[in-house]
Amino acid sequence: MARDDEEYYEGERTLEAPGVGPLEGMTVRMSGLFGGGLPTMSADGWSIEVITLDWPEKEVLLLPPKSNLFGTLYGRPPSIHKIASDSELRACGFSYSGRSLVIATTSDLTIYGRHDG
């Protein structure tokens, strides 16, 4: 992991930044205060939902394949997992491979990972 303490980049409006550390020489897509976004569903059907039940707290929910907040395709109640709760949520979503899930707040970056299988 690497960090660049520059506050702003020219690519801020295009939501791209130059990579640092092991990503140097690459262009990295951004997501956060100025927009952008990460996938909310993995290729194998896992998804996340962000809800606000008690403002300003935002809850990040993880849902298994073939389910949503209102039920499943097979009539069983959904198996919902709350994985984060924060009033300063900035961005969250899956990597394009679907093997990582990122949750970013004003002070923390949490990365969940899984292996194939």
What's the layout of helices and strands?
Elements: E1 16-18, E2 27-29, E3 47-54, E4 57-63, E5 67-68, E6 71-72, E7 81-86, E8 89-94, E9 100-105, E10 109-113
Antiparallel strand pairs: 1-2, 3-4, 4-7, 5-6, 8-9, 9-10
Q: Which structural class best describes the helix and strand composition?
A: mainly beta
Shape designation: globular
What is the end-to-end distance?
26 Å
Instruction: Going across the biggest sheet, name each strand in turn.
Output: 3-4-7
What profile does the largest beta sheet have?
A: 3 strands, antiparallel
- SS elements, strand count: 10
Order of helices and strands: EEEEEEEEEE
What does this structure look like?
This protein has 117 residues and is mainly beta. It has 2 domains: 1-30, no CATH class; 37-113, no CATH class. Helix content is 0%, strand content 41%. The protein has no helices and 10 strands. The protein has strands spanning 16-18, 27-29, 47-54, 57-63, 67-68, 71-72, 81-86, 89-94, 100-105, 109-113. It has a 3-stranded antiparallel sheet with strand order 3-4-7, with no helix packed on it. It has a 3-stranded antiparallel sheet with strand order 8-9-10, with no helix packed on it. The model has no long low-confidence stretch (mean pLDDT 83).
